[in-house]
Amino acid sequence: MSAIPALSSAQLNKRIISVVIFTFFCYLSIGLPLAVLPGYVHNQLGYSTFIAGLIISLQYFATLISRPQAGRYADLLGPKKVVLMGLVLCGASGLFSILAVMFSTPLTSLILLAIGRVMLGLGESLTATGSILWGINIVGTTQSARVISWNGVATYLAMAMGAPLGVMLNAAFGIPGFAGLIVLMAVFGFWLASRRAAVVVTTGQRIPFNQVFSRIWPYGLCLGLGTIGFGVIATFITLYFASHGWRGAAFSLTLFSAGFVAMRLVFSNFISRFGGLRVSACSFAIECVGLLIIWQAHSSLVVDIGAFLTGSGFSLIFPALGVEAIRQVAPQNQGSALGLYSAFLDFGLGITGPVAGLLIGRWGIDTVYLAAAVVVAFALVVIMRLRLRAGAAVEN
């Protein structure tokens, strides 16, 4: 990688935003159908709620499976080409959604929707992974935390905007309303990305996946464990409020997001100043406290405080540990490391729902927040061991 000239903070942010905007387009495409498709599959096509949920989950499974390969392709082909491929797949998912409503038979519509969801999952892997690696290449590896942080802001901002916008467009125009927007964003994003300068692919020995995995798995494991705290709030906070007869679950989710975004914008520079392990240790501690507060809450106000702390704690975990993960490999293998590392987040979100559902059925909904706190505390223990090992390596 060529040397990156010294840039001001504003110049760095401008360069980063010029590529993480493609992540925004991708995750807005993901957010738009989320609140609409389950109802369409269940109420209009006549399938069970299980099938409706499975249609949504197909995207997550496709993302989980394809993340590592997306990173490898970014290493081999360059992040620009990977982002372009990802945007094409995102746009194709919108086309298949439009085709699904044009067919009168429920089974044909369901199959077309399923194909579109798989394409969207593949598009997410390629676009998100490629955008991060593209950003790191144009501002330098020393700014990795800044790139990952801005990418996260783009992700959660797009998801927050996507669901309500999708509902509005569906009410006005039906599924072709939001699906058409997905296609238009893909076309515009492809045009925009094609005009951006590509970065030179780093040459050198590329190590096998198993060797990359052996170097980054502790950081990915901790990311997956920390993600469970986010998962139990995003998935079960509405049921938690209902079980206590409270109102305002949506506001708790808003506070979670506010804490998340605020930490990313204000404190992401702490990662380069104090190191990823130290920042992630503090983050896990804050997240754990937030979850314990929710577990023991006796009013919605206390839950709001816990949700804000949980979002604040979870915010810097991905970039802090991501910096440490990609540091374990040479530049020509960083895409593979990033893809494998990100897959732990997908896996954590994937297992949260069914495992927490089993806990709720046996011990009640309050226990999922205690269990999540215990899991996050375990991640903190692992991080402390990694810090001790890193300190011993420096002394030797």
From TrEMBL:
UniProt domain Major facilitator superfamily (MFS) profile: residue ranges: 15-391
Transmembrane segments: 16-39, 45-62, 82-104, 110-136, 148-167, 173-193, 216-242, 248-267, 279-299, 305-326, 338-361, 367-386
CDD domains found in the cross-reference section: MFS_YfcJ_like
Membrane-topology annotation of the record: Multi-pass membrane protein
Keyword Membrane: yes
SUPFAM superfamilies found in the cross-reference section: MFS general substrate transporter (SSF103473)
Superkingdom, natural source: Bacteria
Keyword terms, alphabetized: Cell inner membrane, Cell membrane, Membrane, Transmembrane, Transmembrane helix, Transport
Record-linked InterPro entries: MFS, MFS_dom, MFS_Exporter, MFS_trans_sf, MFS_YhhS-like
Subcellular location: Cell inner membrane
Stated family: Belongs to the major facilitator superfamily. YhhS family.
PANTHER family on file: QUINOLENE RESISTANCE PROTEIN NORA (PTHR23531)
Record-given protein name: Uncharacterized MFS-type transporter AB3U87_13300
Organism for this UniProt entry: Erwinia plantamica
